[in-house]
Amino acid sequence: MLSVLPRLPRLLFAALAAVFTLFLVIVPAQAASAHPAGTTGVLVTVRSDAVDVEMQIHNAGFVAATGYDIGTDQAALDAIADNLMTFILHRVSVTDSVSSLAPTVTSAPVFERVNGEDAIVTTIHFADGGRPIEGSITLEDEFIVDVVPSHQVYVSLVSDWNDGQLTEGDPSVVGILGGGVTEITIDRTAPSPVNGFLAVIRLGMLHIAEGTDHLLFLATLLVVAPSVALRAKRGLRWTQPIPVKRTIGRAALIITAFTAGHLITLALVSLGVVSFPTKPVEILVAVSIIVAAVHAIRPLLPRGELLIAGVFGLVHGTAFATTILDLNLGFGEKLVAILGFNIGVELAQIVAAVLVLPLLIWLSHARAYAGFRVAVGTIAIIAAVAWIVGIGTDQPSMLQPLFDTIARFPVVFYLALVAMVAALWFGTRDPRRVQV
């Protein structure tokens, strides 16, 4: 058995590399977009008593439809803003199953870059005296397409809380106007606030299930749960196995610390109490993975995983809040969304722990566990560095196709992980070290 040990690191890394390479070549990653370049985007947010329509008007289409060629001069746009909005309001309308909704301009037109192109962005609020929105919603938009029929207008739904329609990231496209089509109807089935609450729970679960960065952070924390940091001549060292009950207790404390951290900033950022720029937050999320990974390779502090989970949980909560903010919800809906989203996140974390922790406990009774923990930490560091480089260059991480594929085939990946753990345990098990 001792003769096998020098070959374990190479065997372990070869096994991990083989598994990850397999997923890398299965399916390429695909990027989604609310609407392609060269088109106008209309983003619809359905509230309990109103419908907000954000128009992202393609500049070239605007020039073709109105004859105004002002480039991207915001002062020139401000000078014609009132006439422009009057012109638009005569061509854009929203109706629910009861009546037409009266429009109010809530955001004056401004120039922005959308999909890498110049666009005029403005928001119109449609309501009927504060009464609830009922039934299906019909949007009619004749702006630009009445003059340039070939122009395309992509209509996307940002959120409809009462109908349970919530999307993470890019809004879902519900229809395309142009070519003589100027009207689209958004069907709604039995709207109720309960639908929004259930949908945001599911959204929280999906955010963890598809959020490789958050899962990797949790994995690097949990991988030390079956171990304990002891002082040696050259500092702290991990030792394992430890009793199963103690491992479960350590895992529960790690998840609790992470929960406490991200719940605080999730609420504060979602409610607008504090705000942080996106890029630094994304970089700090990657840094949190590096710190947790270094701790997994060699303990930084006794029980340092709890401190890492709690402190960096604050950073992850800030990242979680982006999802709530993107839904464009009202204050009351945000409060419910924060609760539901957090429930979803916790359910997903518990599922992940239930699936992974038994494997970690099992392998901790084998000599391969130290190498396995180092391999997990090393892979996490490589992934985090790749994320930082991608964030800094405004490009996807070079490893993103791999993680996208894992997210699309979680069962296959999990079974491969089980098989690898079984093989490592079988090849390096030591019955004398088993504890319960």
What can be said about this structure in brief?
The chain has 436 residues and is an alpha+beta fold. It is built from twelve helices and twelve strands. The chain folds into two domains: 2-28 and 196-433, no CATH class; 40-191, no CATH class.
Uncertain stretches of 5 or more adjacent residues: 1-33
Query: Rough shape?
Result: elongated
Query: What level of helicity do the residues show?
Result: 40-55%
Average pLDDT: 85
Q: Order of helices and strands, N to C?
A: HEEHHEEEEEEEEHHEEHHHHHHH
Largest sheet: 7 strands, mixed
The total number of structural domains is 2
Share of β-strand residues:
15-25%
Oligomeric state of the chains in view: single chain
User: Structural class, from helix and strand content?
Assistant: alpha+beta
What is the first-to-last residue Cα distance? 23 Å
How many β-strand runs?
A: 12
Radius of gyration: 26 Å
> Helix count?
12
Question: Strands, helices and their partners?
Answer:
Blueprint (H helix, E strand, L loop, with lengths): L7 H19 L13 E7 L3 E9 H8 L7 H16 L2 E4 L6 E13 L2 E11 L9 E5 L11 E8 L4 E2 L5 E6 L5 E4 L6 H18 L1 H11 L5 E5 L2 E5 L4 H27 L7 H20 L6 H23 L4 H33 L5 H25 L6 H9 L1 H19 L8
Parallel strand pairs: 1-7
Antiparallel strand pairs: 1-2, 2-5, 3-6, 4-5, 6-10, 7-8, 7-9, 11-12
Please characterize this protein's 3D structure.
By secondary structure, this protein is of the alpha+beta class. The protein folds into two domains: 2-28 and 196-433, no CATH class; 40-191, no CATH class. The chain has twelve helices and twelve strands. Strands 1, 2, 4, 5, 7, 8 and 9 form a seven-stranded mixed sheet that branches. A hairpin with a 3-residue loop joins β1 and β2 (50-58). The radius of gyration is 26 Å and the shape is elongated. Mean pLDDT is 85; it is low at 1-33.
